[in-house]
Design brief:
The protein has helices spanning 48-54, 60-63, 136-139, 355-360, 470-474, and strands spanning 25-26, 34-35, 44-46, 69-73, 79-83, 97-101, 104-105, 127-132, 146-151, 160-166, 170-181, 184-195, 203-217, 220-234, 261-276, 280-296, 305-322, 327-346, 364-387, 390-407, 428-429, 434-450, 455-466, 476-477, 488-501, 504-521, 527-547, 550-563, 584-593, 598-611, 619-633, 638-645, 653-659, 662-667, 672-680. The chain is mainly beta.
């Protein structure tokens, strides 16, 4: 997929800022504040002005502004993620990425969900940082392919309210307020969305509330972040009307799964406490997290229902100190304790022409289990100034991940009532109660050389891992009674260059990433280790103030993702490209200040073709989509924004797939319109 975006910034009040005033400090890659120019390693930054100008209805409209990233949009608020990787699917695919909000993971280690980014309050974000590739030495499990961190400082937001109205009965109300009360800075933001949906029997209602506060507790400075979200979605499934069905406008509204739904609630609270001493800084951040979700698995035969929930308690501890003028040391510990449960059941007999499927997919409960997950980690990083223009670091981390699994049904592949299924047993299989422990070590090495005050080159090597997802361990199939899988190993080497001077910012990264011992499902639907994959590419992020009235932004990547072996009891795929892994992705933006009060944005998104299956026999051709946005600052308090998405009414698929002999498409919506009226108090 190649994504090109021509982008005219819709925020007239910030378009005059030079690039040297924007995106100078990053926090995610190093788990500490760092000059973006001097950072050893990559980071793509989506800053406040871009977030406001795009005014995204779905997070994929924002993450396309980072090179090497594709958040493939499903129906409603659903999505699948790609960062230096193919679009990954399956039980453990979400565990290849770490998604954070205000530095706290959206889901617990081992309990993630592929759609978890809809738990974020991205509409209230001030900044989004994307760190691509390995980073386990700082974050532990899940940071194999990349990290996405959405941050906000609600107590610094202006008090405002806005109303969005769009095609297909889309309505959204955003509001924010901030105020100082004695010695406490307080802020809150709320988003209420109603979308009627383009396809039949689709649409969603979503509510989000975030609250932030900052104050002092003696010598400590405390910052509080609280977010709660609720999603009630009627889900449209794949379009399965044959190859290229997405090109036929008369088919686009078809929803073959009118009963599909997804309901999700999330809640997070964290309290970051920071103490500044002469040469030392302490940070202690306790947090709470709660997630609950129920949805119809319309993509599986028998269409079972899944209910899951997780309750988490954790703490992050860091100590940063200067040893001398040339050495600084960071040490810390992360602890996460989570109680999770999962229930899968089928409300009716399987409707199928296949006697086999009717026999092995019975009505009733398939899984009913709980897991107590514990993650303990210690980490350290030594930063070194080797010379005035040379820096280096060494980072190490040790993780212990423990799961205590309790099965609340009969073990094995029996029906809920304990009787056997025909054809050798039921598909869904439940192991006996057990405890599982994974011990993992990771490290990172980096070096940078500053050619002058504006240009730096760097190299970084990482050894990373991800522990198995609980679903890969305990949600078994086809009588796999004993699961013996280990953590996935990943190694990455990257070389980069970063330039920043006045009106120009540029960053280029070349990377080579290999995964060994990856987890896969074989032909018998058993989870095994043994898959090897290779991922290599080049990325470019460019911001250029061409003229006081014209600014350009380019985000592009070219990558190749391949299978490197033929796994045991699997397909012959060595040397093939991994499915859903477009080689070229690019975004280009031009911001044009038409007048003092009017700004226009043109966005062109081009997606290259890609293979749909591991055998590389089926393909999607790719697409080009254009969007147009205009912003009018009526006066100091009132502004109006207009947007036309899919300007030329292109026929395309947000994502294409091939399974069970069928071409399947998440359709791209035809031309649609929206408007926003905003009032700032």
């Amino acid at each position: 997929m190649s994504v090109i975006a021509l982008h005219f910034n819709a925020n007239a009040t910030t378009s005059g800022n030079s690039l040297s005033e924007i995106e100078t400090i990053v926090t995610t890659a190093n788990r500490a504040e760092q000059s973006h120019l001097k950072l050893i390693g990559n980071t793509s930054v989506i800053a406040k002005d871009a977030i406001e100008s795009v005014n995204a209805e779905h997070l994929n409209q924002l993450l396309s502004l980072a090179s090497g990233v594709w958040l493939s949009r499903g129906n409603g608020q659903e999505s699948l993620l790609s960062v230096r990787s193919p679009v990954l699917t399956g039980a453990g695919s979400c565990a290849e990425f770490l998604t954070l909000e205000n530095n706290i993971s959206l889901r617990a280690p081992g309990f993630c969900n592929v759609n978890q980014l809809f738990d974020s309050h991205f509409e209230a974000s001030d900044n989004i940082e994307v760190v691509k590739g390995n980073n386990s030495a700082r974050y532990g499990s899940n940071a194999i392919h990349g990290i996405i961190n959405l941050t906000n400082t609600l107590y610094d937001k202006p008090t405002s309210a806005s109303l969005d109205i769009g095609s297909d009965d889309f309505y959204r109300l955003n509001g924010s307020i901030s105020q100082d009360y004695h010695d406490v800075s307080f802020g809150a933001a709320a988003t209420i969305t109603s979308d009627g949906g383009f396809q039949e029997s689709s649409g969603y209602q979503q509510q989000k509330l975030s609250v932030g506060a900052k104050h002092n507790l003696g010598r400590w400075q405390s910052m509080h972040h609280f977010t709660i979200t609720n999603l009630a979605q009627d889900t449209a499934g794949y379009l399965q009307q044959g190859e290229h069905a997405y090109k036929d406008k008369s088919l686009l509204k078809i929803n073959a799964f009118p009963d599909a739904y997804r309901d999700s609630i999330s809640l997070r609270y964290s309290m970051n406490n920071m103490l500044e001493l002469e040469d030392t800084r302490w940070e202690i951040t306790p947090y709470l997290r709660y997630n609950q979700m129920e949805f119809l698995m319309h993509f599986l035969p028998g269409t079972p229902v899944e209910e899951n929930d997780q309750k988490s308690l954790g703490v992050q501890i860091k100590r940063l100190s200067n040893i001398n003028d040339r050495l600084s040391l960071k040490i810390g510990s992360d602890i996460d304790l989570t109680k999770g449960s999962l229930l899968q059941y089928q409300t009716a007999e399987t409707e199928s022409n296949s006697a086999f499927l009717r026999a092995v997919l019975p009505q009733g409960k398939h899984y009913d289990y709980s897991v107590f997950g514990q993650n303990y980690a210690v980490f350290s990083q030594l930063d070194m100034t080797l010379a005035d223009n040379q820096n280096a670091f060494v980072a190490v981390r040790y993780d212990v991940t423990q799961y205590k699994y309790t099965n609340h049904m009969a073990s094995g592949n029996l029906k809920e009532d304990g009787t056997a299924c025909g054809f050798g047993g039921c598909r869904y299989t439940r192991p006996d109660d057990q405890r599982t422990t994974f011990n993992d070590f990771s490290f990172s090495l980096g070096y940078s050389y500053a050619i002058d005050d504006n240009l730096i080159i760097f190299t970084k090597a990482d050894d990373s891992f991800r522990a198995p997802h609980t679903a890969e361990l305990y949600r078994l199939q086809n009588n796999q009674q004993n699961i013996d899988i280990n953590s996935v190993d990943a190694n990455q080497l990257e070389i980069g260059m970063r330039y920043m001077n006045g009106d120009l910012f540029a960053e280029v990264n070349i990377y080579h990433l290999e995964k060994q011992n990856a987890i896969y499902q074989d032909a018998d639907r058993h989870y095994l280790n043994g898959l090897e994959t290779r991922h290599r590419g080049i990325e470019l992020d460019l911001n250029w103030q061409i003229h006081p009235l014209l600014k350009a932004r380019l985000n592009t990547s070219y990558a190749k993702h391949t299978y490197e072996n033929n796994p045991q009891n699997g397909a012959t795929i060595k040397g093939n490209e991994i499915d859903t892994s477009p080689r070229l992705m690019a975004n280009m933006h031009f911001d044009w200040q038409v007048s003092n009060s009017v700004n226009t944005q043109l966005e062109i998104r081009h997606l290259d073709g890609y293979y749909l299956d591991a055998q590389n026999t089926q393909q999607y051709a790719g697409h080009t989509v254009s969007n147009l946005r205009t912003y009018w600052e009526i006066n100091d308090a009132i502004s109006l924004s207009l947007a036309i998405l899919n300007l030329f009414d292109s026929r395309y698929a947000e994502r294409a797939d091939y399974a069970f002999g069928n071409h399947r498409y998440f359709i791209g919506e035809p031309r649609n319109y929206s408007a926003q009226l905003r009032y700032q108090f």
